[in-house]
Design goal:
Elements (H helix, E strand, L loop, with lengths): L6 E9 L6 H8 L3 E8 L6 H7 L3 E4 L5 H11 L4 E5 L3 E3 L1 H11 L8 E8 L13 E8 L21 E10 L5 H18 L5 H10 L1 H11 L6 H28 L15
Parallel strand pairs: 1-2, 1-4, 2-3, 6-8
Antiparallel strand pairs: 4-7, 5-8, 6-7
Length: 270
């Protein structure tokens, strides 16, 4: 039975050493979800204790990979309607109200709903009018599931239509440029390792020429020019993180024996 004032929704969060924000994430999610399930892969900073004290149900699950970890979370939830949250995403009061209203008259008409993912940078105001992403985060697991993949963790829509909600999911995605760079380095390693390897000529072209385009995509198309000098710096960092994936794919080709770098791959200096 759903608690009064909440929607028949289970929110789930994957964690590993997320003590910084997990209490706020759980508290905000419980403003709309009937339960919050935290799937933890071995935290050593008190994340599990903090999450449980904040009202979450905590499950120990060794890391399976991005999509597979979310699959495990899906299976652990009590409700069929799920809210996919990262450990740095806060459900705003407006979004909570909107989700409750969506379920007030019974099951929603769509199989899934896209949310506005709005960045709260560590310095300055909320980026509410630019660099806003749309992510399908609220969905019915009877109709849609996360991919069984180690790297990819976005819903497989398979032709299903997603509705849209107007409330903000506030994303505290980084604490500063050092943490953002470290995060992008780890993500690029996982994506380069798990994604299908691009053909060698394509990778060469991307390594040589794609970096400026990655920068312009963030700075101009996503509007980070509106964030001033800091927006320029974040755009540069994000572009570099994306470019690193290409370089790591180039190294994968070298290890496989393709390209001039292959001759030196795996050999120790004399």
């Amino acid at each position: 039975m759903t608690a009064p004032g909440r929607a028949p929704v289970s929110a789930y969060v994957r964690t590993l050493n997320e003590a910084r924000m997990i209490a706020d994430v759980v508290a905000a999610a419980l403003g709309v979800a009937d339960e919050v399930v935290v799937v933890d892969s071995g935290s050593t900073d008190g994340t599990q204790r903090i999450a449980a004290a904040s009202g979450a149900r905590v499950i120990d699950q060794p890391w399976l990979g991005n999509g597979l970890q979310k699959r495990a979370a899906e299976e652990a939830c009590r409700h069929d309607w799920l809210l996919d949250l990262d450990a740095d995403e806060i459900v705003s009061p407006d979004l909570a109200t909107e989700i409750r209203a969506l379920f007030a008259k019974g099951p929603p008409p769509e199989a899934a709903y896209a949310l506005r993912l709005v960045t709260q940078p560590p310095y300055g105001a909320l980026w509410a009018d630019f660099s806003v992403a749309s992510r399908v985060k609220l969905y019915d697991r009877r109709k849609l599931r996360m991919p069984e993949h180690r790297a990819w963790d976005q819903l497989e829509m398979k032709g299903a239509r997603a509705g849209r909600l107007a409330g903000d999911l506030i994303h505290h995605s980084f604490t500063g440029i050092a943490q953002a760079a470290d995060k992008l380095n780890k993500v690029s390693t996982a994506r380069a390792r798990e994604a299908r390897l691009k053909p060698y000529p394509v990778v060469i072209c991307r390594v040589l020429a794609a970096l400026p385009f990655y920068f312009l995509r963030h700075y101009l198309l996503r509007g980070l020019w509106r964030a001033g000098v800091y927006g320029f710096a974040i755009s540069m960092n994000s572009a570099y993180g994306r470019w690193l994936r290409d370089v790591k794919m180039l190294e994968a080709h070298y290890r496989a024996g393709r390209g001039p770098g292959a001759q030196a791959a795996g050999k120790s200096p004399r």
